[in-house]
């Protein structure tokens, strides 16, 4: 199954109802370059952990500021850096253009007559630029404005951005504001001859921004050139590196080597440490939680003969797919019935058909949604749909790096109620994965929700199976207020090497990779459910 895309999810720009990207794609570095548009999260091999075992962030995103005159080649330099990084993690090229202030009708009229000064620092909403950049640097989401050069206006939509390891902020005033400068790890100025910049600007603005040559020259002489001399060029003194506006391959090479070194220093061995965490006395034998253990926030379904019967079918290697799906759906519904007990309720009185008052309860949550960790979390979505009507369900694709076994965040499709911070703070989230083994994927998914502003005690992690010997102890210590609802606790967790499959006729091959299996377990639940 691919990412389940719910109608209640909005895509990256958030007012119209546009096309949704259904596929969780892995891009090659070449694709990345070809698609290196501004204000987009460019992914290649995914985002490795950006936090430690205590759940706290260990590194901010690496932020590069690129300033220079109009058409000096700032965007070009940003794209060259992305290309030169090769197998990059995730990158955003954030353009200062997005932060032009909202214009009045009079200002727009002046703009069409080439009589509005877009080159003065006051034309740009610097505080908004700095706060969006600060959010992205601190690994939080940001919903940035979208600006139209043809309409000379900020549009109503915003663009949702989250999860870049590298952010490149570019613009003529990118080094002008002290608050912005304080956010950069590396400051670059692109220096270019004025005649070359003018020639490039004429060519670009006629082709891409719907301008006339006469208008471009009017604007250039009146505003662009004086501003370059007075405001833009002087900011070159803040730069760590001055890059030429043409023939700059050597400078790009030096910059990307520097960035790669910085990122290597931040690399972790997160999953291995989770796997080695050792067993936790998670559920005491008598099933009475020990109040002294502050990390015990796990609810295990009562181990009735009926539940054990369901698990026996699901664990049985001989169970055929139809039966497996039926019982997995049944178990998902039981887990969800239990999980919804942890939502808040308030009193509600109703009048019954025999005209008597009944004092009952109703849900007391502004917003509730589900998020599946793909693809094994998918089977639990059916349980959620059975117990809650019309609920938005998003997804996260988290897979392990074939070589290192580290979790990598490859794709996100979150409901609107999480994308916007002010909504996320009041949203309850059911997070799904079929099992918690090393706990590394669960850890990453919880961190993503917290980055968006979801409160820890508003996250209810629902899973069929937990490995006592895995990273559950680390998970619970890092996020003690996240509730885990599960159907069984297994003792074992074994590291093994999964052989790759050779490419055959009509079938693509897969690489071998390191995996951890829960024992006795239920096997690969996603494969057994979907294949
Ligand atoms: N090093 C370069 N070599 C050749 N063309 C370039 C180079 N840098 C920029 N250009 C061209 O100049 C134009 C303006 O470049 P761009 O990067 O968009 O400028 P800026 O972002 O500074 O406004 C584009 O058409 C781009 O292809
Ligand atoms: N409505 C607008 C807004 C800005 N400009 C010009 O854009 C230039 C900055 O963008 P670059 O990509 O060239 O860095 C700036 O010099 C403004 O004059 C515009 O023409 N219309």
From TrEMBL:
Q: Which residues form the signal peptide?
A: none
EC numbers = 2.7.1.48
What are the alphabetically sorted keywords of the record?
ATP-binding, Kinase, Nucleotide-binding, Transferase
**Domain Phosphoribosyltransferase positions:** 302-495
SUPFAM superfamilies with a match to the protein in the record: P-loop containing nucleoside triphosphate hydrolases (SSF52540), PRTase-like (SSF53271)
Q: Which Gene3D superfamilies match?
A: 3.40.50.2020, P-loop containing nucleotide triphosphate hydrolases
Instruction: Enumerate the InterPro entries for this protein.
Output: P-loop_NTPase (IPR027417), PRK/URK (IPR006083), PRTase-like (IPR029057), PRTase_dom (IPR000836), Uridine_kinase-like (IPR000764)
- Phosphoribulokinase/uridine kinase domain span: 63-244
Record GO biological process: CTP salvage; UMP salvage
Catalytic reaction(s) noted: cytidine + ATP = CMP + ADP + H(+); uridine + ATP = UMP + ADP + H(+)
Q: Hey, which pathway is this one from?
A: Pyrimidine metabolism; UMP biosynthesis via salvage pathway; UMP from uridine: step 1/1; Pyrimidine metabolism; CTP biosynthesis via salvage pathway; CTP from cytidine: step 1/3
**Listed GO MF terms:** ATP binding; cytidine kinase activity; uridine kinase activity
Q: Which family does it belong to?
A: Belongs to the uridine kinase family.
This protein is called Uridine kinase
Protein species of origin: Wolfiporia cocos (strain MD-104) (Brown rot fungus)
């Amino acid at each position: 199954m691919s990412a389940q895309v719910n109608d209640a999810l909005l895509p990256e720009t958030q007012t119209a109802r546009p096309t949704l990207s259904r596929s969780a794609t892995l891009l090659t570095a070449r694709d990345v370059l070809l698609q290196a548009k501004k204000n987009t999260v460019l992914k290649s091999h995914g985002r490795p952990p950006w936090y430690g075992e205590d759940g706290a962030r260990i590194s901010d995103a690496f932020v590069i500021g690129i300033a220079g005159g109009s058409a000096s080649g700032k965007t070009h330099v940003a794209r060259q850096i992305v290309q030169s990084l090769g197998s990059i993690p995730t990158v955003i090229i954030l353009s200062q253009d997005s932060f032009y202030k909202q214009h009045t009708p009079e200002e727009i009229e002046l703009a069409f007559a080439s009589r509005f000064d877009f080159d003065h620092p006051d034309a740009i909403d610097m505080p908004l630029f700095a706060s969006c950049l600060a959010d992205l640097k601190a690994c939080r989401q940001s919903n940035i404005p979208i600006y139209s050069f043809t309409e000379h206006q900020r549009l109503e939509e915003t663009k949702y951005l989250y999860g870049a390891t590298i952010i490149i902020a570019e613009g003529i005033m990118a080094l002008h504001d002290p608050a912005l400068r304080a956010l950069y790890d590396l400051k670059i100025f692109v220096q270019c001859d004025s005649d070359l910049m003018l020639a490039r600007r004429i060519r670009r603005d006629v082709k891409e921004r719907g301008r006339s040559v006469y208008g471009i020259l009017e604007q250039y002489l009146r505003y662009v050139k004086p501003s370059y001399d007075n405001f833009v060029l002087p900011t070159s003194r803040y730069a760590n590196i001055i890059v030429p506006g043409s023939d700059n391959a050597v400078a790009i090479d030096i910059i990307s080597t520097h960035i790669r070194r910085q990122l290597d220093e931040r690399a972790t061995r997160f999953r291995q440490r989770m796997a080695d965490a050792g067993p936790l006395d998670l559920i005491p034998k008598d099933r009475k939680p020990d109040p002294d253990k502050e990390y015990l926030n796990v609810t295990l379904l009562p181990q009735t003969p009926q539940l054990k019967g369901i698990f026996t079918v699901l664990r049985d290697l001989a169970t055929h797919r139809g039966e497996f799906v039926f019982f997995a759906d049944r178990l998902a519904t039981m887990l969800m019935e239990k999980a919804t007990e942890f939502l808040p309720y308030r009193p509600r009185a109703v009048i019954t058909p025999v005209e008597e008052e009944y004092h009952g309860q109703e849900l007391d949550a502004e917003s509730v949604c589900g998020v599946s960790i793909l693809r094994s979390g998918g089977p639990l979505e059916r349980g959620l749909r059975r117990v809650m009507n019309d609920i938005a369900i998003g997804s996260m694709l988290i897979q392990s790096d074939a070589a290192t076994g580290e979790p990598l965040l490859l794709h996100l499709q979150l409901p609107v109620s999480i994308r916007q911070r002010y909504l996320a703070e009041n949203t309850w989230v059911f997070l799904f994965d079929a099992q918690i083994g090393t706990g590394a994927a669960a850890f990453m998914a919880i961190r993503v929700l917290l980055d968006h502003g979801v409160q820890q005690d508003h996250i209810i992690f629902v899973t069929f199976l937990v490995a006592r010997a895995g990273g559950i102890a680390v998970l619970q210590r890092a996020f003690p207020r996240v509730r885990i609802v599960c159907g069984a606790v297994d003792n074992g967790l074994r590291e093994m090497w999964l052989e790759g499959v050779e490419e055959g006729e009509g079938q693509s091959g897969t690489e071998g990779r390191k995996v951890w299996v829960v024992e006795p377990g239920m096997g690969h639940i996603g494969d057994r459910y979907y294949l």
